[in-house]
Amino acid sequence: MSNIILNTEGTPLNQTAEGPAGGFLALGMADTIGTLLASYWAFVSATPATEQDADALIGKLGLEERLAFNQPSDEEQCLEALTSRVVPFKVLNSHVLCARSLTIGQAIELVCKDPTGQPDVVVRLAQLGLRVAMNRGKWVLYVSNSPLHHELRRLFADTKWSAGGWSVVLRRLPGGEESTQRIGAGFAPGKVTAIDVPAHWLPTNDESDMLLAA
Questions:
Q1: Is the pTM for the entire model greater than 0.85?
Q2: Which of the residues in the chain have pLDDT under 50?
């Protein structure tokens, strides 16, 4: 088990086999199990635990299935890789345009919350190959399919999707489908992948926003 080992001090150490969001355990579960294993080992042995000791403990306690259950799916990892990236945006705040560094997810949330009040965020997302829009009564994220899209390749750098392929994986998410859309004003129509915007980025009460965005 290379994902969770105990270091020589007997405290948990989480390891990942790949880069940012490219392949990881759910961090909460990894931290919890790592802490429990470290505490158990400190209680039963005066010798620092090795990776082999951790493997043996995980097998003995039957934790393999639980760890596998909490492993994010490939499509969830792909979306996390994309939306956790931090990018500079120009955000309208009390009628003043401010430069802010936001994750892609935070930018999506801003557009869903105020679809007509953040035009610069919408433009910047389009430059990144992304569009957030209301479609058939629900918020949808559109992602350009082209593996040659320069900005998307930068966003997926250091992940397993750095050379493309994100569109096929993202289509496994709820609402996932391929369509032809303009990613933004002034852009030619192109193949995109549409997915439902995850609920945690949606406003709590968004009926008025939905009407504005329709």
A1: no
A2: 1-27, 206-212, 214
